[in-house]
Amino acid sequence: MARSKRALNALDRIEKNGTPVINSSDGIDRCIRRTMTEMFIEGGVAYPESRIIEKGNSMSDGIDYPLWLKRGDGCAQQKEDTCYVQSKDEAEKLLNDFWQRGVESVVVNEHLKGDLIKFYGVEGTDFFYWFYPSKCGHRSKFGLEVINGDARGILFDTDALKQEADKAALMLGVPVYGGDCVIGDDGSIKIIDFNDWPSFAPCRDEAAFNIAMAILNKM
N or C: which end of the chain has fewer CB within 10 A? Predict the structure, then answer.
C-alpha cells in the first residue's frame, strides 16, 4: 500500500527486472485523482460530470452547486483534500486554501444524490464485494459518507457494477482494487472513487484467497 515516489521507483525497478507485480507502479500512479479523472472521462467509465482547475485559477461560471472539490495531484492525504461545497463563495475560499497548501490542481466533481456504495474486487476473478457504509458503520477515514445520508436500498444491477469496476481496473492497471459509487434513483451507477490496494476490511479472508489466485495466475 506504499505510494511514496521512493517506494514506487523501487517497485518499478524490480518489475523491470522481471519480478511479477500485480498492481504496478504505473497503475498506482494512475490512481492520482487528476489522472484517473482524465482516463475515466476519455475511456467512458461511468463517472460524475467533472472538470479540472489548474493552480491559481478560480471557479468558472455556469457550475451547479453543491459539488465536490478534490485534490488533483495525489490521493487524499487529509480531510481538507476532499471538500463538499454548497456555494461559489465557499468554493473560491477552499480553492485558495488548496493553492496556499501547494496543491497543483483540483478536480471538480458534480454531487450525485443517491445510495453510496463501497466495493472491493479482483479483476479477472469472480470476486466482488459491495456494501452500504451507512448501514454497517464502516466509515472511511474522513467520514464523508454522511453527506449522502442513509442508503435507501435502490435496486441496481450488481453485475453491471462489477463490469464497470473491472473496466476501470483494466484501464488504470490495478487489478486489485476498491472504490466508491453512487446509485441514482433510476438505478444508474457512477463510480466516484477508485483505489489501489484498499483495506478489504469487511471481506479480508475471501479477498485474500482471490488476490492469491490472481498472483498465482500471473506467475
Answer: C
